[in-house]
Amino acid sequence: MTSTSEPIDGLTLIDGLTSEALQAAMTEAIAAARSAAAPFGAVLLDLTDGSIVARAGNAVENGDPTAHAEMRVLRTMNRLSTPAAQYALASTAEPCPMCTAAAVFAGVGAIYYGTSIATLIALGWPQLDLPARELTSNVVPASYAPVVVGGVREAECDTLYTHRADAALAQQLARARDPRPPGHHALTPYLAVPDVHEAIAYYQAAFDARELLLVHAAENIVYHAEIVIPSIRDTVIALHEDLPGTARARPPQTIDGTTVTLTLWVNDVDAAFSRAITAGGCVDSPPENTYWGTRMARFRCPAGHGWTLAHQLLEVSSADQNLGAQAHLAAHPLTSLAGKSGSHMLVSGSS
Ligand SMILES: [Zn+2]
C-alpha cells in the first residue's frame, strides 16, 4: 500500500467519523498550539478508528522556516504503511498554501481546521491570502483532492490568535518556555571580584573572553558584568565587585581563599596553562596526568578564583578511581582541616 493508492471518498469519511474523535483531535491541536511559540497546532487523525497518530506545534523558531505544525505531522507519514487517504490533517488554523499543497501531495483524505486564514489576516497575522479550499479545487484529477472542512471548534481556536496577535508576544511565549537569556547555558557561574575591569582584562588575555555587559551602579562600582568564553562553547560567566551588605558573595580575598573551583575543559592543557600564567595567573599545580584519566593543571586568576584546566585522556572506572584516590591519600596525607585556608587542599603533613 502506498500513498498513491486509490483515494477514499472524503464525504464518506466525514460521515463515518464520530465527531467525538474529531473533537479529541482538535483538543490535541489546541494543546500543541498553546505550547508553541507561534500558537499553531496540528494532528494527524486515522479516519478508520479516530485515533491520533501524530501531533505537533509550530517550530519555526528553531530555524526551519517550513516547520509549520501541519508540515511536521505530515512528515511523520513516511512511517505509515496504510493508504494516506485514510488520514486527516486537523489544524487549529486553516493550513497555509505550503501546508495545503503538502497535504495534497501526501494524499490525505481530509483537512479540518478551526480559525480561517481570513480571521488570521484580520487579527494581524501575516498570511498568504489563499484559502485551502481554493487551492484544493485546482487538484487534477479532482478525485484526489482532500475534503476541506473549516470552522471546527472555531471560537476556541480563534482565542489562540486573538490574544497573541503580535510577534513580540509570540517571542515572549518562546522565552517563557526557555528561561535563559540568549547565549546562556542553564548554569552560569557568578564570580565576585575586587575589580571587574581588571578581571575582564585578565580573562581576555588568558581565555580570549569577550565582554558582553557592564552594569555600573556608580562610576566606580560595577554591579554586574558578563563575559563569554567562545572556546568553551560560548560559556557565559557573570562578574560583580565587592558589595558588602548585599546578598552577593564576597571576593576570594575577603575570606582569604575560595570555596569553588571552575573547571575549563581545553584541548591543550599545557598551552592554556602557560597562557593563563603568563597573563598574570598564579600556579597552584602545573600540568600533570591524573589517576582519573585527565591531563590537568590548577591556577588562581588575579581575582583569586581557582581554575582547573583539564583534558580527558581516557575513561577510568569508578572502582579504579577509588583505588587511585586511596593510593594518592596514602602518599599525600591531608593536613588538619582547621586553620588551613587560602592554600592548597592537598599538602603533606599528618592527617
Ligand atoms: Zn503552513
Structure description:
This protein has helices spanning 10-16, 19-34, 69-74, 97-106, 117-122, 132-136, 154-162, 167-177, 196-207, 269-278, 318-331, and strands spanning 41-46, 52-57, 87-93, 110-115, 147-149, 190-192, 210-218, 221-229, 235-240, 261-265, 282-289, 294-300, 306-312. 30% of the residues lie in helices and 23% in strands. It is elongated and about 85 Å long. It is built from 11 helices and 13 strands. Helix 9 (196-207) runs antiparallel to helix 10 (269-278). It has 351 residues and is α/β, with parallel strands linked by helices. The structure holds zinc ion. Zinc ion binds at residues 68, 70, 95-96, 98-99.
Concise summary:
The chain is an alpha/beta fold.
**In what order do the strands lie side by side in the largest sheet?**
2-1-3-4-5
Give a list of the ligands: zinc ion
Q: Give the helices and strands as they follow along the chain.
A: HHEEHEHEHHEHHEHEEEEHEEEH
Q: Kindly state the percentage of residues in helix.
A: 25-40%
| Intertermini distance | 76 Å
Structural class, from secondary structure content? alpha/beta
Low-confidence stretches: 1-13, 338-351
Domain CMP/dCMP-type deaminase: 20-137
Domain VOC: 183-312
InterPro entries: CMP_dCMP_dom, Cytidine_deaminase-like, Glyas_Bleomycin-R_OHBP_Dase, Glyas_Fos-R_dOase_dom, VOC_core
Task: Give me some keywords for this one.
single chain, 351 residues, alpha/beta, 4-stranded mixed β-sheet, 11 helices, 30% helix, disordered N terminus, disordered C terminus, binds zinc ion, CMP_dCMP_dom, Glyas_Fos-R_dOase_dom, Glyas_Bleomycin-R_OHBP_Dase
